[in-house]
Every structure is written in C-alpha cells, then in structure tokens.
C-alpha cells in the first residue's frame, strides 16, 4: 500500500493565500459604492465612445475599478506573506518596509511591491525617506544596512546610488535573492492549483453578477431618463459640479477685473 505523500508546506501556504485573496475580492465588491467610483471616472469619455445603456457604463466602471483593486489585494494577500515566509524574514516594524532579514552583522530591509511601476515621483520620494529613516536606526546597531525594493513580477534591476539608497530587483531576480532559488518565480505560479482557482472563480462570478445587477438598478434610477436613455447632464453635474463651499470661485475675482 502506497504511503500518503507528505503535504508541501509551500503549496499549503499558497492555497491559503489564494483563499484569502478571493475572499477579500468578494468583500471589496460587496462594500463598493457605485457613486464613489463614478466621481473618479470620465463622463465625457464614456459618451465619446458611444456608451448607450446603463449596463454598459456600469460594467466599464466596475471592470476598471476591480482591475486596479485586484492588483492591490493580490499584493497584500499573496505576494507579501509568501515573500516573508520563503525569505525566512520577519514582519518589519518600520513603515514602508514589509520584511526584515537580520543577522549578527547585517540588516536587509525589503519593501515588497507587485509590479515594476507602482510609484509616482512623490511615492518614490516617500519610499526613499522611509528607507533612510530606518538606516539611521540600524546604524546605531552597528550593522551593515541594505535596502531592497522588490517587484514580484516584471523586469527591473537597479543599484543604489548617493541619491537613492535602495536597490531594485524585479521578477526572477527578486525571488532568487530572497530564496536562493533561481527558479522560484516559476515554482510560485506552478503551485497555484487550477482546482482552487476554478472554485473561487465560480464564487466570484456569482458575486460579480449580483453586484452588477445592484449597480445597474442604482444607475438607472439616478442617471437615466424615463425613456431609459442616459441623462448625461445629470451624470456630469454629479461628477463635476462645484461643491457648495467652492461656488464662490465660479465668478472671476474682482481684483482680476480691469478698471
């Protein structure tokens, strides 16, 4: 009689992380407020591309929002915990640093990001400041300080400079550095079991359809005419009209008028 195969701890970890990821996706969808999303979208664009019905505009809005939301949730629920476990690091107490790997004479601070383009210039500056603040504390411990900005997919490789105190590694290079395994990035995707993904896909599709129905009903009530056509002016007023506290700015300042 064949012995039972010993469970793979990494496989179990990835399955737990995927479970968490999909639960968070459904929770985010259930908590989403359509009007909050509509305030950040472009009504002119939707009309310009010929959007004609509530279902089409709502589906476009939801798809754009969830695509961005999924990236953030996946980073928090999958990439960060996996990186922490496989690197044998600890949760860092420092803001802007996700994993700390500390030895007797070295301190490696790792900020884990999903892809290679997570930042605008102000966010990169903030990350630099956070690494810099941690370096000041580590130096008091008389340890070599190394800061790594790691991207879990994509291709990125840059060394620290005088103006940028952290290194950058993306994709294979990042996973290889924290695991010592050049092929870990391939193992990670192979261990995402199809049966687990298929189960969650069915659950999410049901939640998506229910959300779509709710938001189409809300959009139709709020922003459609009696004949079912979209009331573009009402939608634009909701999206772009001046707030009461700003209405005084609608008139040119008296000081700017010519005598």
Number of helices: 9
Average pLDDT confidence is 87
Q: What Rg is obtained from the alpha carbons, in whole angstroms?
A: 24 Å
Annotated CATH topology of the largest domain: type ii restriction endonuclease, domain 1
Name given to the CATH architecture of the largest domain: Orthogonal Bundle
CATH superfamily descriptor of the largest domain: type ii restriction endonuclease, domain 1
Task: Give the structural class.
Answer: alpha/beta
Q: What is the total tally of β strands?
A: 6
Strand content: 5-15%
Please summarize the sheet with the most strands: 6 strands, mixed
**Number of structural units classed as domains:** 2
Proportion of residues in helical segments:
40-55%
Strand order of the largest sheet: 1-2-3-4-6-5
Low-confidence stretches: 254-259
- Can you write the helix and strand succession as a string? HHHHEEEHEEEHHHH
What general outline do the C-alpha atoms trace? flat
CATH class assignment of the largest domain: Mainly Alpha
Distance between the terminal alpha carbons, to the nearest Å?
101 Å
């Amino acid at each position: 009689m064949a012995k039972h195969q010993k469970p793979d701890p990494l496989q179990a970890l990835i399955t737990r992380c995927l479970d968490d990821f999909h639960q968070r996706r459904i929770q985010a969808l259930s908590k989403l407020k359509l009007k909050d999303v509509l305030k950040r979208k472009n009504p002119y664009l939707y009309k310009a591309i010929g959007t004609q019905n509530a279902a089409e505009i709502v589906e476009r809005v939801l798809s754009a929002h969830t695509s961005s939301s999924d990236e953030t949730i996946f980073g928090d629920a999958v990439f960060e915990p996996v990186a922490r476990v496989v690197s044998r690091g600890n949760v860092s107490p420092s803001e802007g640093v996700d994993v700390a790997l500390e030895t007797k004479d070295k301190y490696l601070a790792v900020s884990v990001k999903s892809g290679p383009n997570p930042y605008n210039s102000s966010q990169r500056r903030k990350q630099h400041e956070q690494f810099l603040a941690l370096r000041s504390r580590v130096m008091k411990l008389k340890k070599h300080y190394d800061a790594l900005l790691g991207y879990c997919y994509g291709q990125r490789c840059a060394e620290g400079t005088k103006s940028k105190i952290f290194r950058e590694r993306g994709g294979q290079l990042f996973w290889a550095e924290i695991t010592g395994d050049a092929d870990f990035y391939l193992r990670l995707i192979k261990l995402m079991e199809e049966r687990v993904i298929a189960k969650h896909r069915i659950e999410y599709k049901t939640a998506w359809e229910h959300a779509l129905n709710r938001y189409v009903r809300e959009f139709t009530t709020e922003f459609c005419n009696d004949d079912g056509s979209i009331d573009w002016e009402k939608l634009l007023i909701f999206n772009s009209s001046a707030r009461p506290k700003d209405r005084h700015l609608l008139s040119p300042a008296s000081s700017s008028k010519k005598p």
